[in-house]
Design brief:
Largest sheet: 7 strands, mixed
Number of helices: 0
Distance between the termini: 40 Å
Structural class: mainly beta
Strand content: over 45%
Helix content: under 10%
Radius of gyration: 13 Å
């Protein structure tokens, strides 16, 4: 069983930056997909960014040019660099990993952007 441990969330002023980290508790050997989702109260969970095993990336239109996802397979970790944060980025952010035919989720970390 894989546990995903997230860190880096918090309160930040609009225009500021945060870097989220998500580390797997066990080796995941170039997991097929590592991704970040977010969910605001009353809204559906949405994909923010994803990165495949060959480091191809995809981003939600709302974060393109501001966020950057990366992965370090040696550390079993995925990152989300969040720049130029806006109040509408406020949400609970969830790490997601697809590995060995399983889909694993982190516990969620809160990101709050003040105006």
């Amino acid at each position: 069983q894989v546990q995903l441990v997230e860190s880096g969330g918090g309160l930040v002023q609009a225009g500021g930056s945060l870097r989220l980290s998500c580390e797997a508790s066990r080796p995941i050997y170039r997991a097929n997909v590592m991704a970040w989702y977010r969910q605001a109260p009353g809204k559906q969970r949405e994909l923010v960014a994803g990165v495949t095993s060959d480091k191809s990336t995809t981003y939600a239109d709302s974060v393109k040019g501001r966020f950057a996802i990366s992965r370090d397979d040696a550390k079993n970790t995925v990152y989300l660099q969040m720049n130029s944060l806006k109040p509408e980025d406020t949400a609970t952010y969830y790490c997601n990993v697809i590995y060995n035919n399983g889909k694993y989720w982190g516990q969620g970390t809160q990101v709050t952007v003040s105006s």
